[in-house]
C-alpha cells in the first residue's frame, strides 16, 4: 500500500505525462510508467554504484561517496527515462511530417473523385506509412461509435505533428460549418508545401555553414596538424608512439560521428 502511494505521489509531479504517453503511443498509464521506470532505474543505479565501489576501493578513497553517487545516478537515470517519452514523440512527429503531404494529397484526390469523406479516410488509411496508420486510428474511432467530428477532434489533440493537426483542423472545421472539405484542404496543403519549401531553404543555409566547419575541423586542421607534428618531431627527435596515433584516430572518429549526427539532426523531414 505504501509503495502504491509512493508511486502515485511521484507520478503526480508529472501532470503532463498522461498526455505525453498518449501522444507517444506508449501503452502505459502514468502510474504504470513511473513504477516501471523506478524499478529499472533502481537496478541500473545499483549496478553503477557497485562498479563505483570498486573504483573507490582501487583508488583508496572513502566509501562515503557511494550514497551520494547512488542518489545522483538514480535521479539522472529516472529523468532520462522521462525524456525518452519526449524522444519518441519527436520521432513520431518527424515520421509523420515526412509523409503528411502525401497523405493529404491522396485524401484530396479521393474527395475530388467523388468519394464521401468517410470512404476517403478509409481508403487513405489503407495506404502505407505511419501517417496512414494515424488516419486508420481515426477510422477505428469512428467504427467504435464516435462521430467524425469527435474522432477528428481527438486526433488533433493527440497528434504529435503540427502539420497533420492543421489538416485535421481544416477538415473538422469544414464539417462543422457545413461547407465542402476540398477547398480548405487544398489551401492548407498549399500552405504546408510553402512551409516545407522554406524549411528546405533554411536547411541549405545551415548545411553550408556546417560544411565549412566540417572541412576546417575534420579535414583541414587534422591533415595540417599531422603534417606539422611529423615535421616538428623529426627536428626535435620527438618519438611518435602507437598510443599517440591511436588517440589521434579516435579523436577523428569521434569528430566525424559528431558531424554526422549534426547533419542528421538538422535535416528537415519533408517530402515535396
Give a quick rundown of the structure.
The chain has 272 residues and is mostly helical. The protein folds into three domains: 2-93, no CATH class; 94-192, Receptor-associated Protein, CATH 1.20.81; 195-266.
Features:
single chain; 272 residues; mainly alpha; Receptor-associated Protein; 3 domains; 82% helix; flat
Structure, explained:
The protein folds into three domains: 2-93, no CATH class; 94-192, Receptor-associated Protein, CATH 1.20.81; 195-266. The protein is flat. With 272 residues, it is mainly alpha-helical. α2 (17-23) packs across α4, α5 packs across α6 and α9 runs antiparallel to α10 (242-266). 82% of the residues lie in helices and 0% in strands. The mean pLDDT is 81. The termini are far apart.
Which SSEs are present, and which pair or pack?
Layout: H1 2-12, H2 17-23, H3 30-59, H4 66-112, H5 117-125, H6 130-143, H7 148-157, H8 162-177, H9 182-236, H10 242-266
Q: Work out the helicity level.
A: over 70%
Gross CATH architecture of the largest domain? Up-down Bundle
Shape field: flat
Strand content: under 5%
Order of helices and strands: HHHHHHHHHH
> What is the end-to-end distance?
55 Å
* Rg, Cα atoms, Å: 27 Å
Major sheet characteristics? none
How large is the count of helical segments? 10
Low-confidence stretches: none
Mean pLDDT: 81
Which structural class is indicated by helix and strand composition? mainly alpha
> Quick one: how many beta strands?
0
What is the CATH topology descriptor of the largest domain?
A: Receptor-associated Protein
CATH class of the largest domain: Mainly Alpha
Amino acid at each position: 500500500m505504501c509503495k502504491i502511494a509512493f508511486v502515485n505521489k511521484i507520478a503526480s509531479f508529472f501532470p503532463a505525462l498522461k498526455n505525453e504517453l498518449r501522444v507517444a503511443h506508449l501503452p502505459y498509464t502514468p502510474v504504470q510508467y513511473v513504477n516501471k521506470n523506478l524499478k529499472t532505474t533502481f537496478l541500473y543505479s545499483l549496478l553503477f554504484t557497485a562498479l563505483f565501489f570498486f573504483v573507490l576501493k582501487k583508488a583508496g578513497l572513502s566509501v562515503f561517496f557511494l550514497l551520494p553517487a547512488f542518489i545522483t545516478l538514480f535521479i539522472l537515470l529516472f529523468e532520462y527515462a522521462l525524456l525518452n517519452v519526449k524522444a519518441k514523440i519527436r520521432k513520431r512527429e518527424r515520421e509523420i511530417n515526412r509523409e503528411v503531404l502525401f497523405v493529404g494529397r491522396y485524401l484530396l484526390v479521393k474527395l475530388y473523385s467523388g468519394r464521401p469523406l468517410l470512404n476517403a479516410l478509409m481508403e487513405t488509411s489503407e495506404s502505407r506509412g505511419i501517417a496512414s496508420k494515424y488516419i486508420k486510428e481515426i477510422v477505428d474511432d469512428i467504427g467504435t461509435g464516435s462521430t467524425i467530428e469527435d474522432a477528428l477532434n481527438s486526433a488533433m489533440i493527440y497528434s504529435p505533428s503540427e502539420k497533420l493537426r492543421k489538416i485535421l483542423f481544416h477538415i473538422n472545421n469544414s464539417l462543422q460549418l457545413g461547407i465542402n472539405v476540398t477547398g480548405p484542404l487544398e489551401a492548407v496543403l498549399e500552405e504546408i508545401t510553402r512551409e516545407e519549401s522554406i524549411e528546405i531553404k533554411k536547411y541549405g543555409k545551415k548545411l553550408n555553414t556546417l560544411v565549412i566547419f566540417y572541412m576546417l575541423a575534420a579535414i583541414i586542421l587534422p591533415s595540417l596538424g599531422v603534417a606539422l607534428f611529423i615535421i616538428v618531431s623529426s627536428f626535435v627527435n620527438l618519438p611518435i608512439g602507437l598510443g599517440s596515433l591511436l588517440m589521434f584516430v579516435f579523436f577523428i572518429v569521434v569528430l566525424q560521428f559528431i558531424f554526422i549526427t549534426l547533419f542528421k539532426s538538422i535535416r528537415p523531414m519533408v517530402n515535396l
